[in-house]
Write a structure and sequence with these properties.
Elements (H helix, E strand, L loop, with lengths): L5 H10 L21 H21 L3 E2 L6 E2 L4 E2 L4 E2 L4 E3 L3 E2 L4 E2 L4 E3 L2 E2 L4 E2 L4 E3 L2 E2 L4 E2 L4 E2 L4 E2 L4 E4 L2 E3 L2 E2 L4 E4 L2 E3 L1 E3 L4 E2 L4 E3 L9 E3 L4 E2 L4 E3 L2 E3 L4 E2 L4 E2 L8 E2 L11 H7 L10
Parallel strand pairs: 1-4, 2-5, 3-6, 4-7, 5-8, 6-9, 7-10, 8-11, 9-12, 10-13, 11-14, 12-15, 13-16, 14-17, 15-18, 16-19, 17-20, 18-21, 19-22, 21-24, 22-25, 23-26, 24-27, 25-28, 26-29, 28-30
Length: 273
């Protein structure tokens, strides 16, 4: 079985003419066997309790110690706060003043000073800078960097992208394979179209740009400093600095259309049928 048992030690010493003695350990748990799933779970529970105790002893604020999971290589600094249901794995670093709220999963990532990871967000192999606000329900996929004081809001997904300082993507957006500068506003529903079915392409959005809601930025493309994208626009070419990109058809209002439609509808069918 390529294993040695504690009881083998006595026989090995005896055969080699060495003396043995018996000592009583004050920690019975140190000699617990792991020969079943139940015993394995008990061993994991013991190790997990040690990890959490180390955090508490060094000044980490843990609201519900029995409801936290943290791997053995996790580093959490004094002054950080962990809410119930937090799951920390890999070589994750949580720095002082950071707040990790309920249900967050953080793997192999760094969360810097005074950042807040709001409930049910997932962060994988990424870095969150000082003062950021992530979530709730945000997803940072591998290779993401979020600059100081930036906001990645609810139902926003970021993948393999660098986000500058003081930039906001507050809700319902996808940012993939992009480099975004400082002070950029990404409106609700805006997405970077980074995949053409064969290759991934990069989007560059320079400092101070404004991306209107429900816009599509089709990579490869660059939006120069201070440019604007009107809501509902599909951007397929570079946008010069300070310019407005807009690609809508002109709105047309047909007078009395609704009245005529109702007049020709079948009798007895109301508006809600």
């Amino acid at each position: 079985s390529r294993e040695y048992y504690f009881t083998d030690i006595v026989n090995i010493f005896y055969k080699n003419g060495l003396k043995t003695t018996c000592l009583k350990s004050p920690k019975r748990e140190e000699f617990g066997g792991v020969n079943s799933r139940a015993e394995l779970e008990n061993a994991k529970k013991i190790l997990q309790a040690r990890v959490i105790k180390k955090f508490i002893d060094t000044g980490v604020d843990i609201m519900s110690p029995e409801n936290i999971y943290a791997g053995y290589n996790i580093h959490v600094e004094a002054g950080a706060t962990l809410y119930p249901g937090v799951f920390l794995t890999g070589k994750t670093h949580i720095l002082k003043g950071a707040r990790i709220e309920t249900g967050c999963v953080i793997d192999d990532s760094t969360v810097s000073e005074n950042a807040a990871i709001k409930s049910y967000s997932v962060i994988e192999k990424s870095a969150v800078s000082e003062g950021c606000r992530i979530g709730p329900f945000a997803h940072l996929r591998p290779g993401s960097f979020i600059g100081k004081n930036s906001k990645i809001g609810n139902f926003v997904e970021v993948k393999n992208s660098s986000i500058g300082e003081d930039t906001k993507a507050s809700h319902l957006s996808y940012i993939g394979d992009a480099t975004i500068g400082n002070g950029v506003n990404v409106g609700a529903g805006a997405i970077t179209c980074n995949y053409d079915g064969i290759n991934k392409h990069e989007t560059v959005i320079e400092d101070g740009c404004f991306i209107g809601s429900d816009s599509q930025i089709v990579a490869p493309v660059t939006l120069k400093r201070g440019s604007y994208v009107a809501s509902g626009t599909t951007v397929t070419r570079d946008v010069p600095g300070g310019a407005l990109a807009i690609s809508r058809t002109r709105q047309k209002n047909i007078e009395n259309w609704a009245k005529k439609r109702l007049a020709h509808s079948k009798p007895g069918r109301g508006r809600g049928e």
